[in-house]
UniProtKB/TrEMBL annotation:
It is found in: Golgi apparatus membrane. It comes from Diceros bicornis minor. Gene3D superfamilies: 3.90.550.20. This is Alpha 1,4-glycosyltransferase domain-containing protein. Residues 197-321 form the Alpha 1,4-glycosyltransferase domain. One of its GO terms (cellular component) is Golgi membrane. Keywords: Glycosyltransferase, Golgi apparatus, Membrane, Transferase.
């Protein structure tokens, strides 16, 4: 009888130990996506060709509030589309630092159509013109590497799978009705902060070839908006925009600057100012907030009634509610964007 009791206690102890072990494994794998969240895997999810894609090419794990707002706003505007956030610092074995909360990461993870995956550049560049460049380049000595690697990654992911790429400082306000498009930053000058194509579009293949052939990381934007602009000029003869109307060349739409850049980069501070009447942005699909220009570290402050605060309140209410505090509280910093 005593032996049976001892055996029962040993079995119970083993079961408890097994449970605690599983609990420890799950808690240490904080950033692992639950199977029910992403049953198809990254490639199958992207392969649907309808994804909205964001990238983080630094090792940063906690998105600033502007990044959170960009992803949340896209998830709200495109509820039937997967919103995929590829993060270089993310892996299945990432451990939480002591006493960290990762509020923004948790917020985005809880949104039904937002999916967070590791960014594996080497695998992403396979079967593209970028692979040989990536396997030979020394990232540690490259100037502007965070931006250059982001410029390359966005070309590869949209060429391979199709969909819409957006920078992490782009706030979505209404759906983009185009499949193959570039966003004009100014007349005859293209941005690469927002673009969309069907999978295997030849324009993006040409962009990747040009990226490698004319690679120069010392010039900021040479592999990004400058590349898109020079390729667009090869692709077609650009005219000037007439009022708020888009241009079309072959099967690519070149969208008017009002669609994403109603406030030009030279006036980026206006987002952080109080307006007598907030603009409607009726001609815009999304707003690029020019975070690269924000070297002053201007932030969104609750109760400030600035344009950007009102945009947060309307288009990313979860981010506004959970991450934005008043002037006396600490505010999630906007400074130091790894991606424009």
């Amino acid at each position: 009888m005593l032996k049976e009791l001892q055996l029962s206690l040993w079995v119970a102890l083993l079961l408890v130990c097994g449970f605690l072990y599983q609990l420890t494994v799950k808690s240490s794998c904080f950033f692992c996506l639950p199977p029910s969240k992403s049953p198809q895997g990254l490639e199958a999810l992207l392969g649907q060709g309808r994804s909205i894609v964001f990238l983080e090419t630094s090792e940063r794990m906690e998105p600033p509030s502007l990044v959170s707002c960009a992803v949340e706003s896209a998830a709200r505007i495109y509820p039937e589309h997967p919103v995929v956030f590829l993060m270089k610092g993310l892996s299945n074995f990432t451990q939480l630092p002591p006493n960290s909360t990762y509020s923004a990461f948790s917020l985005l993870s809880a949104i039904d159509n937002v999916f967070l995956f590791p960014l594996d550049m080497k695998r992403l560049f396979e079967d593209t013109p970028l692979f040989s460049w990536y396997t030979q380049v020394n990232a540690g000595t490259e100037r502007n590497w965070l931006y250059v690697s982001s410029d390359a990654s966005r070309l590869a992911v949209i060429w391979k799978y199709g969909g819409i790429y957006m920078d992490t400082d782009v706030i979505s306000i209404r759906p983009i009705p185009e499949e193959n498009f570039l966003a004009a930053q100014a007349s005859k000058f293209s941005s690469n902060g927002v673009f969309g194509f069907l999978a295997h579009h030849p324009f993006l293949w040409g962009c990747m070839e040009n990226f490698v052939e004319h690679y120069n990381s010392d010039i900021w934007g040479h592999q990004g908006p400058d590349l898109m602009t020079r390729m667009l000029r090869v692709w077609c003869k650009l005219g000037d925009f007439q009022e708020v109307s888009d241009l079309r060349c072959l099967n690519v739409s070149f969208l008017h600057p009002q669609r994403f850049y109603p406030i030009p980069f030279s006036e980026w501070r206006r987002y952080y100012e109080v307006w007598d009447t907030d603009p409607s942005f009726n001609d815009s699909y999304a707003l690029h907030l020019w975070n690269y220009m924000n070297r002053e570290g201007r932030a969104v402050v609750r109760g400030s009634n600035t344009l950007v605060e009102n945009l947060y309140r309307k288009h990313c209410p979860r981010t506004y509610r959970d991450l934005i505090q008043g002037p006396e509280g600490s505010v999630t910093g906007e400074l130091g964007p790894p991606n424009e």
